[in-house]
């Protein structure tokens, strides 16, 4: 009988060699001042095999938010450790590994902020989003929800929105995804994890904010500019009310958003939309929570007749973006 190790295709030399940390965090919400209430990490070796796992509750020192989703009440979290108390153990699980998560920008943003509040830096240099990997592989998924990815690979989900079970499910779905990518020579969609500097870079926010105190970064002015890859889909035109967004649509944002702007833009890009930095006659949609503000974008949108929706409506539309016209 032949040894499978001699007949298998060689593992891509460009793939990470120090392994992966598959992460899931449950939070009090999606905004930049929200907190982590639980976290889980599955450590995998370079070929996606499980080494160990870890889970902790985290006292957010505030209302736990959507208890109906994560199931963690104030009573359950009252005696839980603060993030600063578990930061060292969390770091040991992340150190030197690629952070893997489903919608990795969100998990990374929440983790990075918690480390910043604790006057620490997360030991993560790269992240990999399993949504992006699914798209690279062209998996025939009806949508990019974790449960849909799990079903595709025959992984049974036992407790949705429980950090440990979500991390387990993702780890079990990531391994076959990783091997499929290796067999086909697919480039892994690795992105840099830049240290969080939002509090340090603003004169009005020179100290790490404490509970009940929000950082001052109005208009996301602390964020460095970032060049995004070109949208691969043609612009199908303007958004029409009561119809879904379509891949390739040009979306612009104006004013403050409750969800971190970079996260919101990343979600739009991952859905196949083009994030525009200005409004023109080609803009499909403007997203703003203050349509009456006299900003250059809202003024241009009114003059061009560009459709306008608020952030809440846009996040709902992102759940079901129609594929691009072929």
Automatic annotation (TrEMBL):
Give the highest taxon in the source lineage.
Bacteria
Q: Which SUPFAM superfamilies match?
A: BRCT domain, Ribonuclease H-like
Q: Which residues form the Exonuclease domain?
A: 19-183
Give a single Pfam family match.
Answer: RNase_T
Alphabetical UniProt keywords = Exonuclease, Hydrolase, Nuclease
Q: Which GO terms describe its cellular component?
A: cytosol
Q: Does the keyword Hydrolase apply?
A: yes
Which residue numbers delimit the BRCT domain?
243-321
**Which residue intervals are annotated with compositional bias (Polar residues) in the record?**
213-223
Its GO biological process terms? DNA replication
InterPro entries listed in its UniProt record: BRCT_dom, BRCT_dom_sf, DnaQ, Ribonucl_H, RNaseH-like_sf, RNaseH_sf
Show the segment(s) annotated as Disordered. Answer: 205-242
Q: Which GO terms describe its molecular function?
A: 3'-5' exonuclease activity; DNA binding; DNA-directed DNA polymerase activity
* PANTHER family membership: DNA POLYMERASE III SUBUNIT EPSILON, PROTEIN NEN2
Name recorded for this polypeptide: DNA polymerase III subunit epsilon
What is the protein's species of origin? Streptomyces lavendofoliae
């Amino acid at each position: 009988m032949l040894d499978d190790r001699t007949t298998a295709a060689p593992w891509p030399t460009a793939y990470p060699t120090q392994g992966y940390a598959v992460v899931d965090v449950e939070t009090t919400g999606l905004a930049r001042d929200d907190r982590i209430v639980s976290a889980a990490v599955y450590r995998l070796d370079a070929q996606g095999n499980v080494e160990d796992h870890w889970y902790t509750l985290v006292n957010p020192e505030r209302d736990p938010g959507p208890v109906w989703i994560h199931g963690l009440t104030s009573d359950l979290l009252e005696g839980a450790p603060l993030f600063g108390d578990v930061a060292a153990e969390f770091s040991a699980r992340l150190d030197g590994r690629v952070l893997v998560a489903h919608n990795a920008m969100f998990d990374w943003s929440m983790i990075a902020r918690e480390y910043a509040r604790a006057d620490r830096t997360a030991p993560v240099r790269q992240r990999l989003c399993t949504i992006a990997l699914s798209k690279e592989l062209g998996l025939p998924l009806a949508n990019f929800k974790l449960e849909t990815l799990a079903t595709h690979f025959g992984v049974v989900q036992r407790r949705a929105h429980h950090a440990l079970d979500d991390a387990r499910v993702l780890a079990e779905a990531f391994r076959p995804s990783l091997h499929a990518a290796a067999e086909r020579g697919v480039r892994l969609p690795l992105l840099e994890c830049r240290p969080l500097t939002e509090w340090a870079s603003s004169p009005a926010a020179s100290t790490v904010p404490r509970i009940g105190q929000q950082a001052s970064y109005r208009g996301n002015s602390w964020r460095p500019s970032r060049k995004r890859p070109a949208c691969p889909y043609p612009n199908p035109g303007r958004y029409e009310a009561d119809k879904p967004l379509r891949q390739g649509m040009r979306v612009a944002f104006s004013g403050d958003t409750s969800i971190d702007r970079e996260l919101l833009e990343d979600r739009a890009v991952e859905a196949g939309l083009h994030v525009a930095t200005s409004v023109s006659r080609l803009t499909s949609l403007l997203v703003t929570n203050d349509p009456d503000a006299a900003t250059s974008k809202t003024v241009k949108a009114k003059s061009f007749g560009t459709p306008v929706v608020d952030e809440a409506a846009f996040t709902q539309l992102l759940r079901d973006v129609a594929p691009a016209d072929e």
